[in-house]
Amino acid sequence: MAEVLYWISTFVLILTLLVLLGYQLILLVDLEFDYINPYDSTSRVNYVILPEFLIMAIFCFLNLIAGHWFIFLIALPCLYYNVSIIMRPSNTSETYFDIEYQSPYLTRKLISGTSKDSTTPM
């Protein structure tokens, strides 16, 4: 029963992450094509950043507790990257310069989250 609960909670966490990443990608595309102004875009992205980081931390902790070491080791670099982003001070105009980088990066994160191997049981 614990294994079923683990896989259901993992599925919900991954699905939530995919929705948040898709939302951020849509906001960056809207910003790139000038459908939304930069202030609204950054305020909306900043609203979902912390929940994304917390969900990723819960996902890593859940894999660590459940003993799924391979999935934990795969997710750990992403968690490290998220923590390093929080700890690094950034300039508010960074969005203007990084939009060419952020859009493909979020697309890669979205594709890697939907790949077949990321949700198969070990």
UniProtKB/TrEMBL annotation:
The chain crosses the membrane at residues 5-28, 48-81. GO terms for molecular function: signaling receptor binding. It comes from the Eukaryota. InterPro entries: Cornichon (IPR003377). Its main location: membrane. Keywords: Membrane, Transmembrane, Transmembrane helix. GO terms for cellular component: membrane. One of its GO terms (biological process) is vesicle-mediated transport. It is found in: Membrane. It holds the Pfam family Cornichon. It is a multi-pass membrane protein. Belongs to the cornichon family. This is Cornichon family protein. It comes from Medicago truncatula.
